[in-house]
UniProtKB/TrEMBL annotation:
Site feature: Important for substrate specificity: 13, 74, 156
Coiled coil: none
Catalytic activity reported: dTTP + H2O = dTMP + diphosphate + H(+); UTP + H2O = UMP + diphosphate + H(+)
Protein name: dTTP/UTP pyrophosphatase
Native source species: Rhodanobacter soli
């Protein structure tokens, strides 16, 4: 029995990245709370949320015993602080000010869950930002790009002009680390379509 693959995500970036793997899949809309628990490490938090998304997707499918559901989460981490998505322009500017001239981590976790088991991969990248002056921050926030993005930037968009150096996975920073995801999928018996 060939497993049927689902992506539990509302993110168009994740959809686009998973298409690069080349396997057929369907998208599930899930909405899980993203709240870091007291004492929870950033890595554990990102992994837990990714797992919750995948589990919520599997639960929504109810009786599909051949289903495998992929869930992912991406967060920006600086000084043990997790930067989620900015609520408004002021929050976006504040995040970018904090990231200016410093190196932060981007943690992306991916879980593949099915009736017979659960597996995970975690990818950590280091991103160094250039020094950003106030006009640069204001201009970038005004593009609207920071909204809906962890850490208030998009490496795949104009945010690339803020990134001085990347040590890690470009697709991981964008939301779905493809090397690790492909490894997870192959382990789950999923290969690219012919
Ligand atoms: C750092 C960075 C993040 N992001 C995005 C990836 C994720 O979509 C988002 C982090 O939020 P997530 O909560 O990981 O994902 P999401 O809410 O967008 O989608 P879903 O939970 O439905 O799967 O930030 C970029 O697109 N580019 C970047 O450079």
């Amino acid at each position: 029995m060939t497993p049927v693959l689902y992506l539990a995500s509302q993110s168009p970036r994740r959809r686009q990245l998973l298409e690069q793997f080349g396997a057929d899949f369907a998208v599930l809309d899930v909405d899980v709370p993203e709240q870091r628990a007291q004492g929870e490490s950033p890595r554990d938090y990102v992994s837990r949320v990714a797992r919750d998304k995948a589990r919520a997707g599997l639960a929504a499918l109810a009786h599909a015993s051949d289903a495998l559901v992929l869930g992912a989460d991406t967060e920006v981490v600086l000084d043990d602080e997790v930067f989620g998505k900015p609520q408004d322009a002021a929050a976006a500017a504040a995040m970018l000010r904090r990231l200016s001239g410093r190196t932060h981590a981007v943690i992306s976790a991916v879980w593949l869950v099915g009736a017979t088991g659960e597996q995970c991969e975690v990818c950590v990248s280091q991103v160094r930002f250039a020094m950003l002056d106030e006009p640069t921050i204001a201009t970038y926030v005004a593009t609207g790009e920071p909204f809906g993005k962890a850490g208030a930037y998009a490496i795949q968009g104009r945010g690339a002009t803020l990134v001085e150096h990347l040590d890690g996975s470009y697709s991981g920073v964008m939301g779905l680390p493809l090397f690790e995801t492909a490894r997870l999928l192959r382990r789950g018996g999923i290969s690219p379509a012919d």
